[in-house]
Amino acid sequence: MAEHATHIEGLAHHFVSMEQQKEAGMIGMWLFLVTEVMFFGGLFLAYTIYRTIYPEGFLYGSHLLNVTLGGTNTVVLIVSSLTMAMGVYYSQKGEPKKVMGFLTLTLILGLVFLVIKYFEYASKIHDKLFPAMGWYNPETTGAHGVPLNLQQPVRVFLWIYFLMTGLHAVHMIVGAGILITLILMTRKGKFTKNYNSPVEISGLYWHFVDIVWIFLFPLLYLTGYHLSVGGH
Amino acid sequence: MASEGIIRSEGRKNYLNAATTVKSWLLTLDHKRIGLLYLFAISFFFALGGIYATLIRLELVTPEGDLLTPEMYNRVFTMHGVTMIFFFLIPSIPAVLGNFCLPLMLGAKDVAFPKLNLMSWYVFMIGGSMMLYTMLSGGIDTGWTFYPPYSSIYSNSQVTIAGVSIFITGFSSILTGLNFMVTIHTMRAPGLTWFRLPLFVWAHYATSLIMVLGTPVIAITVLALAFERTLQIGIFDPKLGGDPVLFQHMFWFYSHPAVYIMILPSMGVISELIATMTRKRIFGYNFVAFSSLAIAVFGFLVWGHHMFTTSQSMYTGMVFSLISYAVAIPSAIKTFNWTATIYKGSVSFDTPMIYALAFLGLFTIGGMTGLFLAALGLDVHLQDTYFVVAHFHYVMVGSAVIGFLGGLHYWWPKITGRMYSEALGRISAIIIFVGFNLTFFPQFVLGQLGMPRRYHAYVPEYQVLHVLSSAGASILAIGFILPVFYLAWSLMYGEKAGANPWMAAGLEWQTPSPPPTENFTYQPVVTHEPYEFEQVPEIKQAREAELLRA
Amino acid sequence: MNPSSFLIQIPFFPEQASNFALEMDLFYLFLFALTGFFTVLIGVAAIYFLIKYRRRSQGEVPEQIEGHLKLEITWTVIPFLISMVIFAWGAKLYYQMYTPPTDALEIFVTGKQWMWRAQHPDGQREINELHVPLGRRVKLTMTSEDVIHSYYIPAFRTKTDLVPGRYTTSWFTPTKTGTYHLFCAEYCGTQHSGMIGKVMVMEYSDYQAWLRGVPREKSPAEAGEQLFTSLACSNCHLENNSGRGPSLQNLFGKDVKLANGATVKVDETYLRESILNPGAKTVVGYTNDMPTFQGLVTEEQVAMIIQYIKSIGQKQGSGQTATPAPAAPAPAAQEVGRPAAPQTAKPAAPQGD
After folding, report:
1. pLDDT at C210 over 80
2. Does the beta-carbon distance from C54 to B241 stay under 8 Å?
3. Which end of chain A is more exposed for a tag (fewer CB within 10 A), N or C?
4. Domain CATH code at residue B260
């Protein structure tokens, strides 16, 4: 029978060493993030094409969005990336209490983001600015200062907005789940100075979701910011 | 010794008899068992796809649509395409042979993420079950390409569920590709540098690149289609400001690289088969390795050659056509290199070699007919005709499936510890070759004559060619069914195989057949180039035996 | 005698009935010969090697050959050069096929599940058939009313998709009289294989006679003129540029400058977009006030209006930039994004079809 090597805490049996295991984890996460870039990429492609066809529609559509809420969310996410990075740093130092603190802070900030997002969506749906089935009402956009002959392009902008930010929000929810898991694992004392790659790998994911938002915010919210139209 | 089932093989523990409960299979983390789980799954879908194909060829024997209603026929050809592409071809070699062989070839104990590996199988099964549900509740009739506005507005079939099924199954592909790339990067045995890797590994690395980069795009595309269909958002609907051709761009951005997912692993298999069966290092190893990467990269830049007649700009078409010719060159290089490997080799004609030779011929025709289609002007006449159908069956069946079968026959002794009947193996391979050509060569002529594809009924002047094609299909079917029987028979009664029955070079042959769960009972260390047949112990033994006899 | 006509006697090719068919068949034969050559080359080499180097003893190990750089380069460069030749020939043929001539007989085609409608310039209509004159250039302007279809005439070797929401074109010169198949070549639903028809090529005099014989409704241009008035287009698009919209006299085929600085050519696609999505491209010097007629006019009505606008634009040559005279009531050039008064005018009810 195969002899048992001395069991190293946290080393999976098919890996030869901790270095190999950590390297595998890091490359794996980076590869996964590449797939996420391609996943969002399809929507960015749609955005590019439709914005080229409907430049004015996108201006008016963007103006319908609430820049204050969007901007707040941007700040919230950037700060959450900072707290996440701090969590990773302290996990490498082997200080679990600080790790728990920073991860919890990150989680709270993520939840704040989602709550603000909820309010944004609710207000749009309430205003019948949701481009699906019979919910979309051209007269509503007219009330927001959109010329009648641009209501279709604005509708296009709106579905792009909902799809892109919706997909992003789904990723945030998954991120929140990951953070909860990490917090529980830290509580159980799973992470040490020598074994903390799950925290670092999750940090990569969180930073990625943050970066996607940093692209979404100017493309969606700031495009029409300079328009001065009656309404918002 | 009386032959026994493989469950009790001389008392030695291997991965098959290590544990025999159902739970030990369904919760296994062993890449070899996961490979077998995939083998059962994809074989089922291949059989299903084959039943659809049978219905198609039966219907097309007569010009009238007299076997199936138009609705039924449209569903049958759609399900044939969807089942064969997403649930058989794309997983086939990587998920079965790749999963089984890669860690062995690398001298590793398993893939980098065994749990993700098992998860990828469950994800596949969930997606597959959803597709089965789609089939049982009427199927879809949009063609496997799902073009809107038909698929988003006019079709009254289960498009949304089918789309979600493909979305889910795509993750299986992504996880497999990710696993393979990390494994190849980080888990090679000491001494196994990149240019000492078998070409099978290079091919799978290139394939994994495509799986990882391309599959997310089909995911977002079917997701968008699902939203379009359920919520009438207007993404692809011109009446709401959308663009139906945008779908085609997004769809083909994945689906063209997807065909390279299907062919590259097969090319990797062929490299192994030809090397072993001619006892020669593959001629131009570096060129073949880099060609795999080139195909993967260039393959992402040619998707518009499926859209030459869709009113995309003429100049766009020219760019896509030009790059399509560039991507054909690495395939040509490989074909020449394989042929040159036979030169001054020591050729044996075992079953795997018959398959490899069939591949060589059929891939040449399939690849070169791609040149016809990449030519802008000519594509205007041939697009959406049976010429395209013939072309892609030559590369998908005549090359990819043949490669899969060749690989299955080659690694069968390693996987099961048994040999199958060599005579039956060779006969089946030849039946498949003959049946395949008879089925699909007439379809080139049909397309050239103007017969469009996806036609349930046709004008009578095309009948003779269709009858030939259907006759060929019945022969092909026999060729595909025979292996099921003699391979199953071999599990119980086949001759027991040694560690290296083909006298091949490669780490997977330096461990018993079937291998133990941990693959190797020692830590492999690689000290020489791949395909070094001088070093193969079984060949050395055979040579000594001959010298003694002389 | 050309080799491909011989092969038509053996049914490997459809009849050659258009100006493109001969070249396409020769191109096909060239590729066939090339494929045959390489297949035979590899086949013969492989078979020869397989026989000559078959294994004679179980223990033999042949001399290992790494490769041969010159050979690799040769069989990379030569296929590459050959494929560039193929590309060039294909591109040239494609360019010719998709550059419709300006002086062609224009027929408007609509496809819908599962039939074809063609309308000749003077209003004659046909269903699932297409009559065309021998030796004259014919241009089809096409669109779909529902899903994507494709207009494929194997004997002409032409094929172009019909995409809902835009116009596509196909052109040819018929070179042989006779009746040929017309197939839909983009899967479009249940009766896709039933969406077939006939193309009849006739001598020019016979074509004229046929035209006279078909019961004629108004020509599309006349119908378009009626719509132009009934939909109140004429209220804004006054002839002397003094209205809220630019004059459409002599406009077709010219280039116009847009408010965002770009220049666009006034063709069928631009006119269609201006009717259905007017805010997309606003002409410089005008405000974005035009209402959209999306949902208020059918594709055929749009085509008729376009025919009318073409008919009032035939007098002068194309290529001149149309500069609007300074608009009197509307304010002078606005930047993109600063509209004038909010939209209040409602579009008039459409003419029944």
Report:
1. yes
2. no
3. N
4. 1.20.210.10
Closest CB to C94 among B376, B455, B534: B376
Phi and psi (nearest 5°) for C313? -120, 10
Is residue A31 domain-resident?
Answer: no
Q: What is the least distance, in Å, from the CA of A58 to any CA of chain B?
A: 13
Work out how many domains chain B is built from and give that number: 1
Domain span at residue B122?
A: 22-549
> Distances from the Cα of C59 to the Cαs of B345, B504, C62, C177, in angstroms?
13, 12, 10, 71
Is the CB of A42 less than 8 angstroms away from the CB of B185?
no
Among partner residues A153, A226, A230, which is closest to C279 by beta-carbon distance? A153
Q: Which residues of A touch C260 (CB under 8 A)?
A: 55
Domain that holds residue A95: 39-222
Tell whether A230 is covered by a domain.
no
β-partners of residue C258 are C283
Domains defined along chain C, listed by start: 3-46+68-97 (no CATH), 105-213 (2.60.40.420), 220-322 (1.10.760.10)
CB atoms within 10 A of CB A70: 20
Contacting residues of C for B380, CB less than 8 Å apart: 24, 93-94, 97, 157-159
Q: CA neighbours within 13 Å on the CB side: how many for A223? A: 24
Domain presence at residue B81: yes
In this structure, is residue A27 part of a structural domain?
A: no
How do beta strands C125-127 and C105-112 pair? unpaired
Domain annotation covers residue B14: no
Number of domains in chain A: 1
Question: Does B220 sit within 8 Å of A40, measured CB to CB?
Answer: yes
Q: Is B316 on the interface with A (CB under 8 A)?
A: no
Distance, in Å, from the CA atom of B19 to the CA atom of B181, rounded to the nearest integer, reads: 29
Write out chain B's pLDDT in tens, 550 residues.
333 333 334 557 889 988 889 999 999 999 999 999 999 999 999 999 999 999 999 999 999 988 999 999 999 999 999 999 999 999 999 999 999 999 999 999 999 999 999 999 999 999 999 999 999 999 999 999 999 999 999 998 999 999 999 999 999 999 999 999 999 999 999 999 999 999 999 999 999 999 999 999 999 999 999 999 998 888 899 888 889 999 999 999 999 999 999 999 999 999 999 999 999 999 999 999 999 999 999 999 999 999 999 988 999 999 999 999 999 999 999 999 999 999 999 999 999 999 999 999 999 999 999 999 999 999 999 999 999 999 999 999 999 999 999 999 999 999 999 999 999 999 999 999 999 999 999 999 999 999 999 999 999 999 999 999 999 999 999 999 999 999 999 999 999 999 999 999 999 999 998 999 999 988 899 998 999 998 899 999 998 898 888 7
Put simply, the answer to whether A56 touches C336 (Cβ < 8 Å) is: yes
User: How would you classify the pairing of strands C321-322 and C263-265?
Assistant: unpaired
The complex's ipTM? 0.91
Query: Which residue in chain B has the smallest CA separation from A46?
Result: B246
Choose among A147, A230, B241: nearest CA to C288: A147
Residue A23, chain B, CB below 8 Å: the answer is yes
| Closest chain C C-alpha to A45 CA, distance in angstroms | 19
Alpha-carbon span C241 to B5, nearest angstrom: 93
C121 exposure class (CB count in 10 Å sphere: 0-12, 13-18, 19+): middle
Q: Kindly state whether residue A228 falls inside one of the protein's structural domains.
A: no
Q: How far is C14 from chain A (nearest CA, A)?
A: 40
Identity of residue B446? L
Residue A198 C-alpha from the chain's centroid: 19
According to DSSP, residue C254 is labeled: -
CATH number at A194 reads 1.20.120.80
Q: Find, among B545, B262, B201, the residue nearest to B395 by Cα.
A: B262
**pTM: predicted TM-score of the whole model, two decimal places:** 0.89
Band the pLDDT of C343: cuts 50, 70, 90: very low
How many residues in chain A? 232
